[in-house]
């Protein structure tokens, strides 16, 4: 049985982060879509996004803040989940959609905004493992609430992989999150309260 483990990205090697982000839409975005204040493809270059991810993860430093977790199967880096304080995502606050402005005064909210799984490892349940890792990590760093913004396609419909990068509702539910809002036909807001704050 393969063993799944995870590390905060600052404790991972830079080559592990690169291995996860090397292909697909993640190669271009570098988990910057909600981090830059403007429109990512118009207002940033690939080099800027590459550098931003490296800086935000602080990989290889082992201390200080980081922007996500790297998941491993039998020691091989295969996945990523972005999780950090909600205020670190300026585009959550610059957009007009109500689901991005829910409970602005709620303290200790950490957002789970993106999942990446390497080609060859997809459809193997790794997003479920990564979602569970956010709960373990949230407890470690003292988050009060974890919040995600997954997609739930209508019955009989599916989503493409890059669209599902925000996660699917069932992935979060399996990790103990609850749906707290359904602001659009497909968008859900999910939350998991942690520790003594539950």
Structure description:
- It comes from Nocardioides iriomotensis.
- This is GNAT family N-acetyltransferase.
- Keywords: Transferase.
- The chain has helices at 14-21, 25-29, 40-43, 46-57, 90-94, 126-141, 169-174; strands at 4-8, 68-73, 76-85, 109-117, 145-148, 178-181, 189-193.
- The protein is of the alpha+beta class and 198 residues long.
- The chain has a single domain, classed as Aminopeptidase (3-Layer(aba) Sandwich).
- The chain has a 7-stranded mixed sheet with strand order 1-2-3-4-5-7-6, sandwiched between helices.
- The radius of gyration is 16 Å and the shape is globular.
- The model has no long low-confidence stretch (mean pLDDT 88).
Key descriptive features of the protein:
single chain, globular, alpha+beta, 198 residues, 7 helices, 7 strands
CATH superfamily: Gcn5-related N-acetyltransferase (GNAT)
- Overall 3D form: globular
Largest sheet: 7 strands, mixed
Stretches where pLDDT is under 50 for at least 5 consecutive residues are none
Strand proportion? 15-25%
Number of strands: 7
Provide the fold topology:
Blueprint: E1 4-8, H1 14-21, H2 25-29, H3 40-43, H4 46-57, E2 68-73, E3 76-85, H5 90-94, E4 109-117, H6 126-141, E5 145-148, H7 169-174, E6 178-181, E7 189-193
Offer a quick outline of the entry.
The protein has 198 residues and is an alpha+beta fold. It has helices spanning 14-21, 25-29, 40-43, 46-57, 90-94, 126-141, 169-174; strands spanning 4-8, 68-73, 76-85, 109-117, 145-148, 178-181, 189-193. It contains 7 helices and 7 strands; from the N terminus they run E-H-H-H-H-E-E-H-E-H-E-H-E-E.
């Amino acid at each position: 049985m393969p063993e799944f483990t995870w590390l905060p990205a600052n404790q991972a090697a830079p080559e592990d982060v690169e291995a996860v982000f090397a292909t697909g839409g993640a190669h271009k975005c570098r988990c910057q879509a909600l981090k830059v204040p403007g429109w990512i493809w118009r207002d940033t270059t690939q080099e800027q996004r590459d550098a931003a991810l490296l800086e935000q993860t602080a990989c290889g430093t082992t201390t200080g803040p980081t922007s996500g977790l790297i998941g491993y199967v039998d020691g091989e880096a295969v996945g990523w989940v972005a999780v950090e304080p909600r205020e670190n995502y300026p585009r959550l606050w610059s957009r007009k959609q109500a689901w991005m402005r829910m409970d602005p005064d709620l303290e200790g909210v950490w957002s789970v905004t993106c999942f990446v799984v390497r080609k060859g490892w997809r459809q193997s349940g790794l997003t479920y493992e990564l979602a569970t890792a956010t709960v373990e990590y949230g407890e470690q760093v003292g988050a009060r609430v974890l919040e995600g913004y997954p997609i739930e396609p209508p019955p009989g419909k599916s989503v493409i992989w890059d669209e599902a990068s925000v996660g699917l509702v069932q992935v979060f539910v399996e990790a103990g999150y609850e749906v707290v809002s359904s602001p659009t036909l497909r968008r859900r807001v999910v939350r998991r309260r942690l520790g003594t704050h539950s």
